[in-house]
């Protein structure tokens, strides 16, 4: 069982790396999709293995593998303007797994059999799981914006593009958090729930072994 979980954790670290390279732009804002991998890790693995999956992703990055968005890698990425978000990935995956386990147990449900209403609740819980990611992202980005005029200018341009704010402090919050919330919740998290549930349905025995969420056989 441990070897299966380790294999899945490794695979999901790679999936997160691949999804980091899938992105689109709206004006000056890049929208990568690696949060999908973070949430899937929490849906397909127990808490400590979900945490391990994203720590492995960060380790690959630290060792120089081009796994961050834009095929970047190295310690400089981890300690750069987006380092707060990256540091939040293991925490978010861990919380998503904890919340999944708690909800399924309290509701007396199995993930593979969840209907739309229960999935909606799990989606709301996924939003809760990424709060630390946004908080850390905002803190680190704010620091870098305070010492890097070009980054602060970008934040003001982003806020102006979306006509959300002109005040510096609000602009930094908009550029580092607010503009990413719709994409994360409405695309990445929804896609993660769909993919993870299809995996649970297609591979019930494997999902049971990974998470302990086992559907009784008729």
From TrEMBL:
InterPro entries: BioY. GO terms for cellular component: plasma membrane. Its main location: membrane. GO terms for molecular function: biotin transmembrane transporter activity. The keyword Membrane applies. Keywords: Cell membrane, Membrane, Transmembrane, Transmembrane helix, Transport. It is a multi-pass membrane protein. Pfam families: BioY. It is found in: Cell membrane. The keyword Transport applies. It comes from the Archaea. The chain crosses the membrane at residues 49-71, 78-99, 119-146. Belongs to the BioY family. This is Biotin transporter BioY. It comes from Thermofilum adornatum.
């Amino acid at each position: 069982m441990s070897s299966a979980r380790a294999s899945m954790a490794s695979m999901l670290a790679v999936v997160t790396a691949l999804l980091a390279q899938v992105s689109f732009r709206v004006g000056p804002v890049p929208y990568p999709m690696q949060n999908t991998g973070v949430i899937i890790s929490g849906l397909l693995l127990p808490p400590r293995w979900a945490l391990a999956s994203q720590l492995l992703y960060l380790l690959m990055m630290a060792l120089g593998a081009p796994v961050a968005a834009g095929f970047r890698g190295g310690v400089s990425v981890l300690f750069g303007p987006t380092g707060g978000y990256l540091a939040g990935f293991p925490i978010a995956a861990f919380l998503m797994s904890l919340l999944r386990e708690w909800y399924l147990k309290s509701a007396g449900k199995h993930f593979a059999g969840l209907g739309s209403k229960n999935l909606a609740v799990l989606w709301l819980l996924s939003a809760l799981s990424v709060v630390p990611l946004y908080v850390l992202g905002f803190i680190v980005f704010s620091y870098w914006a305070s010492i890097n005029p070009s980054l602060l200018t970008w934040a003001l341009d982003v806020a102006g593009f979306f006509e959300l704010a002109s005040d510096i402090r609000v602009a930094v919050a908009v550029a580092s958090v607010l503009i990413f919330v719709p994409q994360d919740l409405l695309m990445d998290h929804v896609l993660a729930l769909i993919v993870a549930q299809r995996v649970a349905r297609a591979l019930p025995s494997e999902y049971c072994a990974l998470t302990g969420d086992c559907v009784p056989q008729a």
